[in-house]
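Ticket closed. Logging final result for Hemerythrin-like domain-containing protein.
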Amino acid sequence: MTLTDVRMMRVAHSSFRRELGLSPAAIRAVPGGNRRRTSIVADHATLFLSLLHHHHTIEDDLLWAALLERVPAELAPLVQVMQSQHERVAALLDQAHAALGDWRRTTSAPDGEALAVVLSDLCTALFEHLHAEETHLLPIMARHITPEEWEEFTVQGMSSIPRRLMFLGFGMMLYEGDPEAIELELRKLPAPLRHLLPPLGRRAFRRYARRVHGTPTPPRGVGVIA
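Final structure:
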């Protein structure tokens, strides 16, 4: 059986783990009343909450629905767990958006702490879900999702990144993503872009990480469950 290469899912997951996992500390480091710094960190959290919501939406629409139709018996042991995890993550996403709105408005330390707590809870639920997905669901996807369907999922996923953040988005994936999987994606691009993306992406990510996390080299492996 020919397997579909689904490694880019892990690449996307590594960015979610790192950037959301580091967000509570970034929020807690903002002095109360510092509107400029609040805006920078709140924009970062908003971006990744939006990307995560989009990721789960297209995952449900393009992958999960197809698998339920094709291999319901193989998915049966996972359905209840995956659905409950998605519902928990979705509820915490809603809470996080509400807490973000409060913090943006007041810039107060107590509202920042309330947001940090919600994001910490979200990360706990999310990391458990991503681990279960990578362990149990990705092997099924590799067997039963076609390369064409996977390509559509990848394209839809990339479409959620604003065009002005194209270099940054690629740099985020390069930072700790599977080099071989990323190289395969690069080969699909026109030669000029294929050569420009890596150096420009790395530069954009270093600049962004310094601005948000205070270092161009934030910790790798955040949220990985052994």
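The mean pLDDT is 95. No further action required.
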